[in-house]
Amino acid sequence: MDNRYKEVLMTYVRRSYGSVGTVIWIGLAIWAFITGDLGESRQYGFFSQFIGTLLAAGLLWTHFSQQMTEPQRKLIPDFFRWHVAAFLTLAGAVVIGLPAIAIYRHGGGHIGVYAITIFLFGAVGLVSAMNYLSAIVLPVACLPLVGAVFWQRVGDPSSPKGWLYTVLLLGIGVAEIAIAAKLLARKSEIHRPRLMEMPAGDALDAVAALLRTTEKNTHTSINYARPDRPGKGGRLGPWKLFRAILRHWHQARPRWLGIGFAAVVCLISVLYFLSIRRESPTQVTLGTIAISLALIAVPGLVTTGEWLQILPCLACELLKPAPRHRFVFSIAVGMLVQILTLWMIAAGMFILAMLCAGVGLTALRLAAPYGLASLLFQFIIFVASWWSLPIRGIVWAMLLPGIFYCLPFLLDLRSGYKGLLVTAAGSMLLGLILIPFVYRRWMNLELG
Amino acid sequence: MPPAISIRNLTKCFGLKQALRGVELEIPVGATVGLLGANGSGKTTLIKCSLGLLRPSAGECHLLGEDAWSLSAGAKARLGYVPQVIALYPWMRVAELIQYTASFYATWNTELADRLIKEWELPLGDRVRTLSVGQKQRLAILTAVAYQPDLLILDEPAASLDPQARRQFLQLLVELSEPEQRTVLFSTHITSDLERVADYVAVMKEGKIAWFGPLEALKERTHTSLEDAFLEIQQGLSNG
Q1: Do the bridges between strand B183-187 and strand B5-14 make them parallel or antiparallel, or are there none, so unpaired?
Q2: What is the SS3 assignment for B81?
Q3: Which of A25, A34, A19, A16 has its CA nearest to residue A401?
Q4: CA–CA dist A400, A268 (Å, integer)
């Protein structure tokens, strides 16, 4: 093996897959997907594949696109050749290796997994080529679309319609990858690579300022300065990507992007709600899961104002297969919980805020652990990011979706009360564990 | 033998601002050239254009006989560069970064690298992000010189070094510039550094080369110290 290839490959491994959080997240997802008995609850398996692919692809593309725009790329001999070789090796593992294992293990009927993987990988790459900070945000935003496609059971291509969706996804995925490659090639020739300037909207600043009501909050909020320049960022990891998401939502055209995203989530939610009304009231498919994942990815929305914080909660409520009176009740309670939580956070009452969110949302989610997990996760990430929680705490907080979604699957708990107990107990426990970190950080900060 | 660096009528604009205005410069192989200039005079832009990191608005740059914008792998392997703003991989450990860089260069001199690591007391096990600015500067210099490039370009390399490290660095620079085929171009504000190392001086003023020639010729012409000569040039004197 050429030494250059080995060294370049190691930079990807060290930087993209070198953190404990990443290893556990991806490892858990892959393990759940490969070892789990898909059977009736194949949405868990697919979801495991999703979160594994999403993170692995996001980290891979992020590092690759940064290297392709790194100024010194033009001075190191054969720089492009070896980086492309290393990238293709790891991309092959993600888009060919994993789906191949899945298809081998679970049969050809799961070829939809392959289509989804290509689609996701291409979407991440496309966004990454445009602006690597968004490498995770927009693909996550398009997950409802994937969920909607799966809602049509593309994973089971026994019908012409299923095949059509599979081919469509594959085609889109391949096109995305091709466009990403073209964009990156063009970017690598830019004489002075610049990051996207991210203007902060006035209205956004005003809302954010409202949330930073205390002197302590002003000084302890995260640094929204321009992100690292290409190639200068630190080792990648889930925490870093989520902070990038926060920055993105906080600073990048929130007035149309944020609202558009929220609208898509709500629209899909409504469509899904209508569909389960028509079919089975207890049906839980990838539509649910995709939107849950989308909710996980929008913690940054809270920084744009309370109303945006409320939307995911609304969307989650819309998803829940429940009678209409309970549906309306859930919306009311959900909004109240979210508003109270935000007020408590703004006042610095972290423990009360944590308990409020935990107890309130647990009460709401008796039949839908997905929503509970995503919202609690969202909340914890929000707290962690806003108050610059120590990195280790954030990394562990990032494990929540993996634990929440994969654990019930691995333990064969499915949903229902057992799943709920695991989810609720786990989230509350982790939330409580994180509190000392928040306080320690808060107490030790230099406020001058 | 083609000159190490050949710049013809180089102009570079950033929007409406003209950073370089028709620069003409030819640096022969084996020369050690100090690039002097006030802040904002265009030194870094000139270096970046000559390396092919910036595309000129007009004019042309040739490096080691090749167009700077499209250097071959062979030419890149003969080229060393220490930027003004050090952009090393912060997540890597020092040893990993050295190993990574070494893998790209067949001419990597392990003996020289080990010697510099020892002399400059670089902590091999530490991550790059934990190094001080001066340590990062030393590491950047090490990774640029250890493969013994034929053309070494340094943009204010001693700016962040303490006096002892600066002295060690200048000694290294003298040592590196000894082989006849090696060319060194470095920008600096410190005229005493330049006097110790350079045999040619290029003085930049408002995006142009206001003076270029042997160091001794400059001193003889102005009959003053290099610092005073530099100030005189800034006030209007040129060798054109």
Answers
A1: unpaired
A2: strand
A3: A25
A4: 24
Q: Amino acid letter at B2? A: P
| Greatest distance between any 2 Cα atoms in chain A | 67
Contact residues, A window 332-391, toward B, CB-based 8 Å cutoff = none
A74/B71 CB distance under 8 A: yes
Over residues B105-131, mean pLDDT: 91
Q: Which residues of B touch A1 (CB under 8 A)?
A: none
Query: Can you give the pLDDT at residue B23?
Result: 92
Cα separation, A235 vs A258, whole angstroms: 28
DSSP label of B93: B
Count Cα atoms within 13 angstroms, Cβ side, for A202. Answer: 0
Residues in chain B whose beta carbon is closer than 8 A to a beta carbon of chain A?
Answer: 51-55, 71, 73-74, 76-77, 79, 81, 83, 87, 89-92, 96, 99-100, 103-105, 129
Burial A291-320 (b: 16+ CB within 10 A, else e): bbbbbbbbbbbbbbbbebbbbbbbbbbbbb
Amino acid at A76: I
- Tokens 């300022």 found at: A209
| Regions in chain A scoring below 70 on pLDDT | 1, 20-21, 25, 32-51, 106-113, 127-162, 165, 187-448
Angstrom distance (rounded) from CA B117 to CA A264 = 56
Give Cβ neighbours of residue B64 (< 8 Å, ≥ 6 apart).
B2, B4, B71, B75, B78, B79, B150, B151
DSSP letters of B188-211?
-S-HHHHHHH-SEEEEEETTEEEE
| Cβ-Cβ contacts under 8 Å for B161 (sequence gap 6 or more) | B134, B137, B138, B169
pLDDT tens-place string over residues A216-252: 322 222 222 223 333 334 555 555 555 554 554 444 4
> pTM for this structure?
0.64
Question: Which residue carries 């990051």 as its tokens?
Answer: A195
